[in-house]
């Protein structure tokens, strides 16, 4: 099976004291995009990155950066992340009563909007904003914890999302969590366009990013041929 896909590096899995160096290695390794996790300790039980750090990242690279907002009431902050340099700002459908407003504010600020869905959230939660977004981010694990294992039922959700988006061919599907050598090709074959890569794929203590990225990409391409 021949299908195009992109690899996006989850920056939170890298060296937080050397993100600039990490970004250079990611670019050298051929990464397609960067994934910037924002967490408030309330929507998820962790804290993540912030707008000022995104500004610093933006100065280091021209790669596409998506800001994944795992925060409550994201409409309060979406403009900050657009202004800080995010290409795509992605709030969670579960984090606000006014998802359409959050999407509208992103677009009014000059950004591109996406929507993230937790594993247990049905797809109809985003149907009303499909005309205004460019990305659906499917969480294949419960958000906020690095290294959790893939929830198997999320494979069917990827396929269901692809069917739902037939009328919206410009919307990309990004899968966050559980992306590994065992799951990645299957995700792509079912409809994923972008895979968020973390500790199960490209961030390895004993191997440089310049080797793990092309190796992981080649593995997916090889596996796809047999699907």
TrEMBL record:
Main enzyme class: isomerase
Pfam family, one: Ribul_P_3_epim
UniProt keywords, alphabetically: Isomerase, Metal-binding
EC number(s) reported in the record: 5.1.3.1
GO molecular function: D-ribulose-phosphate 3-epimerase activity; metal ion binding
Keyword Metal-binding attached: yes
Catalytic activity: D-ribulose 5-phosphate = D-xylulose 5-phosphate
Keyword Isomerase: yes
Entry's Gene Ontology BP terms: carbohydrate metabolic process; pentose-phosphate shunt
Cofactor: Mn(2+); Zn(2+); Co(2+); Fe(2+)
Recorded family membership: Belongs to the ribulose-phosphate 3-epimerase family.
Protein name: Ribulose-phosphate 3-epimerase
Protein source organism: Candidatus Kaiserbacteria bacterium RIFCSPLOWO2_01_FULL_53_17
């Amino acid at each position: 099976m021949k299908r195009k896909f992109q690899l996006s590096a989850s920056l939170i899995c890298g060296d937080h004291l050397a993100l600039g160096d990490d970004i250079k290695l990611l670019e050298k390794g051929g990464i397609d995009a960067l994934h910037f996790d924002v967490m408030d300790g309330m929507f998820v039980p962790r804290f993540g990155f912030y707008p000022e750090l995104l500004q610093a990242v933006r100065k280091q690279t021209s790669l596409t950066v998506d800001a994944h907002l795992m925060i409550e009431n994201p409409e309060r902050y979406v403009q900050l992340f657009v202004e800080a340099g995010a290409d795509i700002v992605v709030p969670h459908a579960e984090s606000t009563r006014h998802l359409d407003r959050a999407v509208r504010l992103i677009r009014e600020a000059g950004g591109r909007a996406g929507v993230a869905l937790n594993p247990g959230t049905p797809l109809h939660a985003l149907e009303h904003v499909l005309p205004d977004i460019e990305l659906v981010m499917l969480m294949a694990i419960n958000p906020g914890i690095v290294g959790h294992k893939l929830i198997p039922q999320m494979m069917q959700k990827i396929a269901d999302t692809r069917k739902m988006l037939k009328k919206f061919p410009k919307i990309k599907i990004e899968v966050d969590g559980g992306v590994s050598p065992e799951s990645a090709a299957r995700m792509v074959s079912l409809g994923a366009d972008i895979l968020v890569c973390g500790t199960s794929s490209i961030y390895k203590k004993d191997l440089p990013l310049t080797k793990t990225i092309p190796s992981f990409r080649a593995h997916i391409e090889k596996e796809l041929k047999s699907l």
